[in-house]
Specification:
By secondary structure, this protein is α/β, with parallel strands linked by helices. It is built from 21 helices and 23 strands. The protein folds into 4 domains: 203 residues, 3-Layer(aba) Sandwich (Rossmann fold), CATH 3.40.50; 104 residues, no CATH class; 105 residues, no CATH class; 122 residues, no CATH class.
């Protein structure tokens, strides 16, 4: 069992230590370093697994120490190490893991040297594979990045399953895994599925009738059998998480990064219960209030990159500070509402981008900042906005006007229309963007191409033409297609199920046909794709080409009046009038 993780000069951390117990829920807002801690464990475990059968070699370190160590090829790590060095300096990034028995494993990551992995145990020589492994007996199971299941899954060899079981391609082999399990093992898995998803019964995979090279896995809901590929994304993710957990032994440390991204709050709590009851230790990174609320005493660990040590939460006062930390500056913004008598509710960090658009296109009232913004957590936060206005009226005797702006996310046009209508019937101002998120309104080819050209002028590299830029964006969005469709399908089916609407619009074939029609056009892909991710991956390509990355402001500066989406212009205009 892991007792401590210490990272030095790694990612966001200059020097950071986290002491671990049986239950560890790493909490904090986005970009605080939770995933970096999880990745440090991934790197350590990858080094351990890839060298398990190898004899260590004697190595002298820069500080003069002589150790028995392994040189680990970077391709065996399975993680992009390009940004692993803190602030891109020339020092090694150091990952140190101490086990309960005091033995310590260390990984050194360098810009100029290969990856080095060594173990220290009371000064003993560890000059054989068996001694090295015995000195650092870490049993750790890490749930990899998950994705949608394959529509058509081929039967594959055992070796193929083993190679991919701890990687992001594990979703391609879920049916193969359970096809090989015994009836007893599958029964335990099916019981876990049924307990979390009431009314659903999962069936053991079988060879496809007439096409034995393919495997099928069905589940029953309301007496209707469907293949798991047709299930919602959340259910597919739950099947995969249970599959990875089934590989772990009771003495294992289980590691999961942000399961709340995929799972309904009730399923998150179910997952936490399984981790507590079945495994010696678990480490979960999250910013989910539901998981934090369900945590036991001392399980919550606050991660803050500016501190030297993680802080384990003990008192009600510390819980309050943690909630404030996760919620950023919401409380301060609420205090400004009383003065302005108006408030704009938005998702996440949308207000900064809104202000930038307002400044660029001359919406001065919106840009002035006189009306405060308060962050909500998506569609589900609309009730919070409504209750906040009620509280100002009934408790503080203040009449406060509100305007809500939501990202469309992966929701259907029908759901968006129904949502806006619900607001209007209650006399409230609300607009839902018609693209996945606000960053999608920066995805104008002309502006991007001009921004690249200006960036290239600063360097001695060839400027790509517009057709090349379009090709890059096409390549990126193509890799997103299946994942985006899985999310669109899940959101649409959930909406029709919730509204008890059983007409043809909720049929998967209809949903798929509408999706395919939109996706054929670049404008459709711009609407549906995750904008932040698309821009991030475009920047990766630009870095590879030696051009350097584009900031959002660089693109925005190159946008002309005609480049701004008409619907979004009307939205900015409505917000500007509200701020008068």
């Amino acid at each position: 069992m892991l007792r401590q993780i210490k990272v030095t000069n790694f990612r966001r951390f200059d020097n950071f230590t986290i002491n671990l117990k049986e239950g560890n829920i790493l909490a904090g807002p986005n970009n605080c370093g939770k995933s970096s801690i999880i990745d440090s464990i991934r790197i350590l475990v990858s080094c351990l697994k890839s060298t398990k059968r190898q004899t260590p070699e004697i190595l002298q370190l820069e500080d003069g120490r002589i150790v028995d160590a392994h040189i680990v090829p970077e391709h065996r790590i399975g993680i992009n190490l390009a940004n692993s060095i803190h602030n891109y300096n020339d020092e090694d990034a150091v990952i140190e893991a101490t086990l309960q028995d005091g033995s310590k494993g260390t990984v050194l990551l360098s810009r100029i040297r290969p990856i080095r992995f060594f173990v220290e145990q009371d000064g003993k020589r560890l000059n054989s594979a068996s001694r090295f492994n015995a000195a650092f007996p870490l049993n750790c199971s890490i749930v990899p990045t998950l994705g949608p299941l394959e529509q058509d899954e081929h039967w594959v060899e055992d070796e193929t399953i083993q190679k991919g079981e701890t990687t992001r391609i594990s979703s391609r082999h879920l049916r193969n895994v359970w096809y090989r399990k015994s009836e007893l093992q599958f029964a335990a898995f099916a019981a876990d599925v049924a307990q979390a998803w009431k009314g659903i019964e999962i069936q053991k995979p079988e060879r496809q009738l007439g096409h034995p090279k393919f495997l099928e896995m069905y589940f029953s809901e309301n007496r209707l059998d469907r293949e798991v590929h047709w299930a919602g994304f959340g259910f597919q993710i739950w099947l995969q998480i249970l599959t990875h957990l089934s590989r772990a032994n009771t003495n294992n440390t289980v590691v999961i990064d942000e399961p709340d991204v995929y799972l309904h709050p009730d399923i998150q709590k179910r997952l936490l219960k399984i981790l507590r009851e079945r495994y010696a230790q678990f480490i979960v990174a999250t910013h989910s209030v539901e998981i934090i609320n369900d945590a036991s005493t001392l399980e919550i660990v606050s991660i803050h990159p500016d501190l030297k040590n993680a802080k384990r939460i003990r008192s009600d006062e510390e819980y309050s500070r943690l909630y404030q930390y996760i919620g950023s500056s919401q409380n301060a913004e609420l205090a400004r509402v009383a003065k302005a008598r108006k408030v704009i509710f938005v998702e996440g960090k949308d207000r900064k981008i809104l202000a930038a658009f307002a400044r660029r296109f001359g919406f001065h009232n919106l840009h002035s900042g006189a009306v405060p913004f308060v962050e909500l957590g998506g569609f589900g936060g609309w009730q919070k906005a409504k209750h906040a206005i009620w509280a100002f009226k009934e408790i503080l005797d203040l009449d406060v006007s509100m305007f809500c702006l939501f990202d469309k996310d992966f929701r259907s046009d029908v759901e968006v229309s129904a949502f806006e209508t619900k607001f209007r019937t209650e006399g409230l101002n609300c607009i839902v963007l018609r693209r996945k998120e606000i960053e999608n309104y920066l995805l104008d080819i002309g502006a991007i191409e001009r921004a690249i050209r200006k960036r290239v002028a600063e360097k001695d590299v060839k400027s790509p033409d517009m057709q090349t830029v379009v090709g890059w964006l096409d390549e990126i969005t193509t890799t997103m297609k299946d994942r985006v469709f899985a999310q669109v399908l899940e959101k649409t089916e959930l909406f029709y199920k919730r509204e008890q609407n059983r007409d043809g619009n909720g049929n998967k074939n209809d949903i798929s046909a509408k999706f395919q029609k939109k996706w054929e056009l670049f404008e459709g892909r711009v609407e549906l794709s995750p904008g932040k991710e698309l821009l991030s991956r475009l920047n990766e390509r630009l870095q590879d080409e030696g051009i350097g990355h584009l900031t959002l402001s660089m693109i925005l500066q190159e946008m002309k009046d005609d480049d701004l989406d008409p619907f979004f212009r009307d939205t900015l205009s409505s917000l500007d009038r509200f701020c008068e």
